[in-house]
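Hello again, I could really use a second opinion on something today. I've been staring at a protein lately and its backbone has me curious. Please have a think about how the structure follows from the sequence. I owe you a coffee for this, so here goes:
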Amino acid sequence: MSGRTNDEKGDITLLGEKNTKYLTDYTPGVLETFPNKHPDRDYFVKFNCPEFTSLCPITGQPDFAAIYISYVPAEKMVESKSLKLYLFSFRNHGDFHEDCVNIIMNDLIKLMDPKYIEVWGKFLPRGGISIDPYCNYGKAGTKWEQVAWDRLTHHDLYPESINNR
């Protein structure tokens, strides 16, 4: 990222690093941000993370999911390589599916203070059942607070056809 000022780079240190370490224990400190160049415009950023893995806190068996993260940035944005490393850090983390998506959302709220964010986990079945927890947040006192409520109450009106799980 040479040629960019520190204001443009934010706190990015991992992008471009050739000796990346993949941490396998939950590590929210790996998350990095950079400044949103369009803070006055509302727009969505969506991450599709199809290879999420965590552990069942009771049995220790692996759980696999696609995690979808959508957010409307305010001043800061999450850097994608740091997000990848952060999600990878759940590899040996034992928590229920519902907890995982809420932890991810809470960590990203703390990191970026977005206008709006939602996290949806689509976990592969174990024992003949799949679990798809969804959570969201809209900044209190803004239009995004109502958007969060509306999306929460209508988020799965048109569920996809499931033919791969």
The longest strand covers residues 45-55. The mean pLDDT is 89.
